[in-house]
Specification:
Elements lengths: L2 E5 L6 H10 L6 E4 L2 E5 L6 H9 L3 E5 L7 E4 L1 H5 L4 H9 L2 H12 L5 H10 L6 H10 L7 H10 L3 E9 H11 L3 E5 L1 E4 L2 E6 L6 H15 L6 E5 L5 H6 L2 E5 L3 H4 L4 E3 L6 H4 L12
Parallel strand pairs: 5-6, 5-10, 6-7, 10-11, 11-12
Antiparallel strand pairs: 1-3, 1-4, 2-3, 8-9
Helix pairs in contact: 1-2, 4-5, 4-7, 5-6
């Protein structure tokens, strides 16, 4: 079933649901939970109601097939966690402003990702691995709904993977904390308890994320269209466009403009509602 799905972290009121349903031709709407509503709809557009719903901070997205997916891939930085881990490392190394500026340009798609990554990591030379451990333990908060999303996907029998342009130092810890079955990322080189300022090749970037999607799909003997994926930056573009449901979560313009599904006002449990999963089936963290 195709549907228009309304989601919002602050909740979707009955009035908003009725407004959207009337704009969609009077179709009956179904409440998925306090923060989600689904309206059967063959068309994606809601021109008469879109501006009013956006003003109410409700995300409105059309999904061609409202059903649980067998594969879930997610970016880590500014998606599953609220920060860019490399920026947190840089702050400890005293080069925060320089690295953050490069990060922002790369996420907007203004810089080549691989070159930008090497330039940022070079600025971390000499940073103690013990400091990195402290950053991982104290400065990497989860995004709202992240753990419930991943654990529910696991409960539903999906393969779940964290696929990041960041570092395995963090993905290994975040994956274990949240419940991802797999993780992929870049590897920081270290020696004698400190970072060397180099990242090991090959670098996992935009194309590698798409390849990861294809490889995990092949492992399940399904097409990439059976996947739901989420990210926030230009580095996630190829993965988002290849998936059945590709979600831009509070995303930079380069991704938000290209993605079919955009979330600006919802937490990550909205990805469950985008698959038609009601809140009473959530594995609450």
């Amino acid at each position: 079933m195709s549907a228009i799905v309304l989601t919002a972290a602050a909740g979707v009121s009955d009035e908003a649901a009725k407004l959207a349903a009337d704009a969609a031709g009077g179709e009956p709407w179904r409440r998925l939970g306090p923060c989600g509503v689904a309206i059967p709809a063959l068309a994606a557009a809601l021109p008469p109601a879109q501006s009013a719903l956006s003003a109410a901070e409700i995300d409105v997205n059309w999904v061609a097939e409202l059903r649980p997916r067998k594969l879930f891939l997610a970016d880590m930085d500014s998606t599953i966690v609220t920060v860019e881990c490399i920026d947190e490392l840089a702050a400890e190394a005293g080069v925060g402003a320089r690295v953050a500026a490069i990060t922002e340009q790369a996420m907007r798609g203004e810089l080549d990702f691989e070159g930008a990554l090497r330039a940022r990591v070079a600025l971390l030379e000499g940073l103690s691995v013990d400091v990195a451990q402290r950053v991982a333990e104290t400065r990497v908060p989860l995004s709202p709904g992240a753990e419930t999303l991943v654990r529910t996907m696991n409960k539903l029998g999906a393969l779940t993977a964290l696929v990041s342009g960041g570092f395995t130092f963090f993905t290994s810890r975040v994956a274990a904390r949240v419940g991802f079955q797999h993780h992929r990322a870049n590897q920081l080189e270290s020696a004698n308890g400190a970072m060397t300022g180099r990242v090991l090749e090959p670098i996992l970037g935009r194309d590698a994320k798409r390849v990861a999607l294809e490889e995990y799909a092949a492992e399940l003997s399904v097409a990439p269209s059976e996947a739901i994926v989420v990210g926030d930056g230009a580095n996630d573009l190829a993965m988002v466009q290849a998936a059945g449901i590709g979600v831009a979560y509070r995303a930079k313009p380069a991704l938000a403009e290209a993605a079919d599904v955009r979330l600006a006002h919802s937490d990550l449990t909205a990805l469950l509602h985008l698959q038609g999963v009601p809140a009473d089936q959530f594995a609450i963290a």
